Amino acid sequence: MNIAQLFDKIRGNGRYATVDDIRNVFGDYHNALRWLADFLIGDKKLAEACMIDACTIAQTQGPMFHEWLVHWAARATVRCAFQRQQASVLSIAPEYEKDEPVEQTSAPLSAEYFQLLIENSELIQSHLDVLCRFVLVYRGIAKDSCDAVAAELGISPDAVDQAYNVALDALDLPERSSMAMRNVQPQGHIYHESVLAASID
C-alpha cells in the first residue's frame, strides 16, 4: 500500500481527500493487519487482540503521517504478537542452531513470492513453526537484515538464516502440491527434518 500515491491521485482529480477516502484506504489496511496477526499467531481471537489499529487517529492527519502510521501499526502488531509467542520462539531456536551455518543469506521476498504467500497463507502457515513465521515476516516482508531480526527476536543470526531458508522452501508448497496431483516428483527441495518432516507426512 502506498498512501502517498493515493493522495497524489486524489489531488490529480482536483479534490481533497474525504473521510470516505481515508476510511476505504484504512479498511484495506485494517484487513492487512488482521491477516498479518493471524498468520503469526494462528489463532483468530488472539490475533485480533494483537492488532494495533489507529484508523480513527489517521482520519484527521495528513498523507505523510499516514505513511508513518501504516509502518508503525504493522510493526507494533508484529511486536505484540511476538510478546505472546516469545517463549515458543526461544524454545524452538536451538533446533535451528544445530545445523551448519548458511553460507549466503537469502534475499527478502520478491513481489511474486509475496503474492504467493498471500494467496496460499493457510497452507504455508500450516507447514511452518512460529519461529519461521516471524522470520518470514521480519526478513521476507519487512526486509530487515538477519542481524536485525536476530536482535528483535533474541536469537542467533544463524537460527534466523536457517529458519528463513525453511520458510522460503515452504513457499513452494502450492506448486509441489499441484505437481503431486499430476504425479510429478519435485526435485531439489530440502527440508529441516526436525521441523517439517512430521507436518508433511
How would you describe this structure to a colleague?
By secondary structure, this protein is mainly alpha-helical. The chain has one domain. It contains twelve helices and no strands. The model is unreliable at 184-201 (pLDDT under 50).
| Total beta strands | 0
Show unreliable segments: 184-201
Helix content: over 70%
Largest sheet: none
SSE arrangement, N to C: HHHHHHHHHHHH
Mean pLDDT: 75
Sum up the structure in keywords.
globular; 201 residues; mainly alpha; single chain
Question: What's this entry about, in short?
Answer:
By secondary structure, this protein is mostly helical.
Q: Mind sketching the topology for me?
A:
Layout: H1 3-12, H2 19-41, H3 44-50, H4 55-58, H5 63-97, H6 111-119, H7 121-126, H8 130-141, H9 146-153, H10 157-170, H11 173-181, H12 193-200
Helix pairs in contact: 2-3, 2-5, 2-8, 5-10, 8-10, 9-10
